[in-house]
Structure formats: structure tokens, C-alpha cells
Amino acid sequence: MNVFISGGCKNGKSYQAQRIARDQARGGDLYYVATMIPGDDEDLKRIARHLREREGWGFTTLERPVNILELTERPDVNLGGSFLVDSVTAILQNEMFTPEGEMDGEAPERVARDMVRFAEMTGNTVFVSDYIYGDLGMYSESTEEYRCGLAAVDRALAAACDRVIEISYGTEEVWK
């Protein structure tokens, strides 16, 4: 079963996603697809916390900050396993904004297509995304483009997944 989880930052989405992915693995291969490229100490602390939370759960960590479909070509990855992609938010950021400071306006469409294709190829993936596009703040043009792009990627994944969950303020709402 493919599952899409969205919600506010630091609301327990990753922990819930880990539980779902582990339960879906049923003792088989269990993969954590790490997408974050750490940019500061806070990111490093979040990564350390997630590593601690996964200790003893049986996850094999696959670092894939861009081009998620490359995982489907690796001989050491069993596409019949259970996957946790954490997070859609980070992989879009990585693909949309290059280290050279360029913005790729086609990234949202490509990431949406690749994520949906990954879901189809694995059939057993939990996707985690941050709900960052609902507030009324004033942002730069590039940030607005990113927020709109993430909303488009999230809609594509929600449509493609069997189950859609929103986690906010410790409350879980199952939409599909």
C-alpha cells in the first residue's frame, strides 16, 4: 500500500511514517530514503534524532537527495520491500534549487512524475511531506513558486496513494 502523510513541521509525521513502513514490511526489506541535504546545525540535529528513532527497527538507509528513480536501478534495492521517503519537501527543494543558486522551474512537474512512478514501481511506499503552502505570509517569488510546486507534487501523490493522512498538532486525520 502506498501512503501519503502530510502536516506541519515537527508534528510526528516521520515517526508515524516509520511505524507504517515497518508494519508494511512484515519482516521483509525495509528502506528509509533520506532526502535531506543538511544546511545547518538544526538539520544535523533532526537527522540525528531520526537516526535514533529508527535504531533497531531494521531500516536500511538509502541516501537519495535527488533523482529518486535511480534507486529503482540499484541491484541492492529490492523493489518488493517497504520504503519510507522522508521527505518530499526536501527532494523538491534539492531539485528545484541548485547549489549554484539557480532555480529549475520544471522541477515540480518532474518530481511529481518521478514520485508517482516510484509509488507505482514499489507499491509499498510511505511518503512524508510538510504542509507549508497554506499560510498567508508574504514570500519571495522563488519561495512562492516552490510552495506552489510542492502543493502540485503533494496533490499528485495524494491521488496516486491508497491512503492519505494529515498530522497536525498531534492529531491524525485519515482523508483516504
Radius of gyration: 15 Å
The strands making up the biggest β-sheet line up spatially as 3-2-4-5-1-6-7
Work out the helicity level.
40-55%
Outline the low-pLDDT stretches: none
Overall 3D form: globular
Question: Class by helix and strand content?
Answer: alpha/beta
Task: Count up the helices.
Answer: 5
How much of the residues is beta strand, in percent? 15-25%
Please describe the biggest sheet, giving its number of strands, its sense, and whether it closes into a barrel.
7 strands, mixed
Q: Roughly what is the average pLDDT, rounded to an integer?
A: 91
List keywords for this structure.
globular, single chain, 7 strands, 176 residues, 20% strand, 41% helix, 7-stranded mixed sheet, alpha/beta
Could you describe the 3D structure shown?
This protein has 176 residues and is α/β, with parallel strands linked by helices. It is 41% helix and 20% strand. The chain has five helices and seven strands; from the N terminus they run E-H-E-H-E-E-H-H-E-H-E-E. The chain has helices spanning 13-25, 41-54, 88-96, 107-122, 141-160; strands at 3-7, 30-34, 60-63, 82-86, 125-130, 163-168, 171-174. A seven-stranded mixed β-sheet has the order 3-2-4-5-1-6-7, with helices on both faces. Strand 2 (30-34), helix 2 (41-54) and strand 3 form a beta-alpha-beta unit. Helix 3 (88-96) crosses helix 4, helix 3 (88-96) packs across helix 5 (141-160) and helix 4 (107-122) packs parallel to helix 5 (141-160). The longest helix has 20 residues, at 141-160. The radius of gyration is 15 Å and the shape is globular. It starts with a strand and ends with a strand.
